[in-house]
Specification:
With 166 residues, the chain is mainly alpha-helical. 69% of the residues lie in helices and 0% in strands. The protein has one domain.
């Protein structure tokens, strides 16, 4: 079991919940906006992977699937991080999703930045959240504060019951 001070534990849980909230909120906003689609984001992509993302954004038969998958992943990742359930898997999925966002519109000096999202040089919110999710993976808390704690307790009770019977 990880030994954290109460301050460390509280801050790690708060960060996990905040990142989860961001994912959940983004997914819900997209779900309830009938006009939202990833097509514009994908077709405006730049950088080395731009041809792949542009192709996806212009593929009318795939864009609905991409939109639904994006929304579903954001909601599930957000809920899991908030609840402390399947946290490591959710954090890895979050890293994958955010990496695709980062690679679609990397904040590099030679590329343009879409208006309204700020001015960044290499480090943007996606990269910050990627590394924050890596911290959540390396310093897990959901087995202490989260639904994973109940699964851990159930496994321990089952193990103790089996040892007593043997």
């Amino acid at each position: 079991m990880n030994k954290y001070t109460s301050t460390q534990l509280n801050l790690l849980v708060i960060v996990r919940v905040m990142i989860g909230w961001h994912f959940l909120y983004e997914g819900i906003v997209k779900y309830y906006n009938p006009n939202w689609t990833a097509a514009g984001f994908l077709t405006n992509s730049e950088g080395i992977f731009a041809p792949i993302f542009k192709n996806l954004g212009q593929n009318a038969s795939m864009i609905g699937t991409i939109d639904n998958l994006n929304i579903m992943l954001q909601i599930v990742i957000g809920l899991c991080l908030i609840l402390g359930l399947f946290t490591r898997v959710s954090a890895w999925l979050g890293i994958l999703l955010l990496s695709m966002y980062y690679l679609a519109l990397p904040p590099f000096p030679t590329l343009s930045t879409p208006s309204g999202i700020g001015s960044y040089l290499i480090v943007d919110r996606n990269l910050i959240e990627i590394f924050t999710l890596a911290i959540i993976i390396v310093f897990p808390t959901s087995h202490i504060i989260g639904l994973e704690r109940f699964f851990k307790l159930a496994r321990m009770n089952k193990s103790n019951t089996t040892q007593i019977q043997a």
